[in-house]
Write a structure and sequence with these properties.
- Helix 1 packs across helix 2, helix 4 packs antiparallel against helix 8 and helix 4 crosses helix 9.
- A hairpin with a 5-residue loop joins strand 6 and strand 7.
- The chain contains nine helices and nine strands.
- The strands form three sheets. It has a three-stranded antiparallel beta sheet.
- By secondary structure, it is α+β, with helices and mostly antiparallel strands.
Length: 285
C-alpha cells in the first residue's frame, strides 16, 4: 500500500525577512559619514565656534537637542565637553579636564589686554543690570567709548593711539561673538555667553583687581602699560572656544580650524567659559 503524497510539505521553507538599513547621513555614495546630516552640521558649528545660539541658529538648535547624546560622545572622542544651557538657548565646547591625567588641549586661547578685560567687565555688568527687566541687552558704541575713556593714561598715549586700542578691543569682541551686530550702526546686542563666563561675585572680584591695576598704571610710565595689560588678562577667573568662551564658550579656536569659539595655542580658554581673562583665538567664547 502506497502512502498518498501530500499537497503541502510538513516543513515550510524559512522566511527571509529583509532588515531595514540603519538611517545613514551619507550625502554622496563615497561619503563615509554615518551620522545624520543635521547632527554633523551641529558638530561642525561647535568645533568652528564660538557657539550655537538658539535665536541665531534656528535650524541647528533642534538637531542639537535631539542628537545631544551622540554629539557629546563624538566630542568626547576629541577631548572636548559640550556645555549646553537650555534656558539661555546656548551651547559651546570646552576642553576636557582630568586632574589626574594629562590630556591634549584642543581649544586654544589668547590673553586679554587691559582694555579687553575692562570691556568684557563693562558688558557683563550691563547684562547684570538688565537681567531682571530684559531678555536681550544692547549697548551703543558711544557708551563703550565713554566707559573705556577712564582707562586712557594721563601721559604718554594720545587720543588717537588710545582710540586704536579701543577699536581693536571692540573688534575682538565682535569676532568672538560677544558683541552681536544689529541693524542699527554702532549698536550691539551683548551675548548671553558672558552670563556663563562671569557670575556676579566674579564680576566684583575682577573689577576690584582691575581698578587696582589701573591705579598702578596711572602712576607708572607709559612703557609699563603693556605689563599691566598682561596682568589684567590673568586677573579674571578661569573661563572655557579654539574657545568662552571653552567663554565661554572660552572664546577659542581649535587646532587647524580658523573659525573658533571660542575662536591658537595649545592652552586655550574654554567658548567657553573660562574666559574673563582669555579670549579664544578665532572668536570662541
Amino acid at each position: 500500500m502506497t502512502t498518498p503524497k501530500r499537497a503541502y510539505t510538513d516543513v515550510l521553507p524559512p522566511v527571509v525577512v529583509e532588515r531595514e538599513e540603519t538611517a545613514s547621513g551619507q550625502v554622496a555614495p563615497d561619503d563615509p559619514g554615518r551620522l545624520p546630516e543635521a547632527t554633523r552640521r551641529v558638530l561642525l558649528q561647535l568645533l568652528k565656534g564660538p557657539y550655537i545660539l538658539r535665536s541665531r541658529h534656528p535650524k541647528l538648535w533642534p538637531a542639537l537637542v535631539v542628537g545631544e547624546a551622540v554629539i557629546r560622545e563624538r566630542l568626547g572622542d576629541l577631548f572636548l565637553v559640550l556645555v549646553l544651557d537650555h534656558d539661555r538657548g546656548l551651547a559651546f565646547v570646552r576642553n576636557f579636564e582630568a586632574p589626574e591625567v594629562e590630556v591634549p588641549k584642543v581649544i586654544r586661547s589668547a590673553p586679554l589686554t587691559l582694555i579687553d578685560t575692562a570691556l568684557v567687565l563693562f558688558l557683563r555688568e550691563h547684562r547684570l543690570k538688565a537681567e531682571a527687566t530684559a531678555d536681550r541687552v544692547y549697548v551703543g558704541r558711544d557708551e563703550i567709548d565713554d566707559h573705556l575713556g577712564v582707562y586712557q593714561p594721563d601721559t604718554g598715549v594720545d587720543a588717537v593711539a588710545f582710540g586704536k586700542r579701543v577699536n581693536a578691543s571692540v573688534n575682538k569682541m565682535k569676532e568672538a561673538s560677544v558683541l552681536l551686530e544689529t541693524k542699527e550702526p554702532d549698536r550691539f546686542e551683548v551675548s548671553s555667553i558672558l552670563d556663563l563666563v562671569f557670575d556676579a561675585d566674579e564680576v566684583l572680584a575682577v573689577t576690584r583687581e582691575l581698578r587696582a591695576l589701573v591705579g598702578e598704571d596711572a602712576a607708572a610710565p607709559d612703557g609699563d602699560e603693556e605689563d599691566g595689560d598682561d596682568d589684567a588678562g590673568d586677573a579674571g577667573p578661569d573661563g572655557d572656544d579654539d574657545d568662552a568662551g571653552e567663554a565661554g564658550p572660552d572664546v577659542d579656536e581649535e587646532d587647524g580650524d580658523d573659525a573658533g569659539p571660542d575662536g591658537d595655542d595649545d592652552d586655550t580658554a574654554e567658548a567657553g567659559p573660562d574666559a574673563p581673562r582669555d579670549v579664544e583665538d578665532g572668536g570662541r567664547p
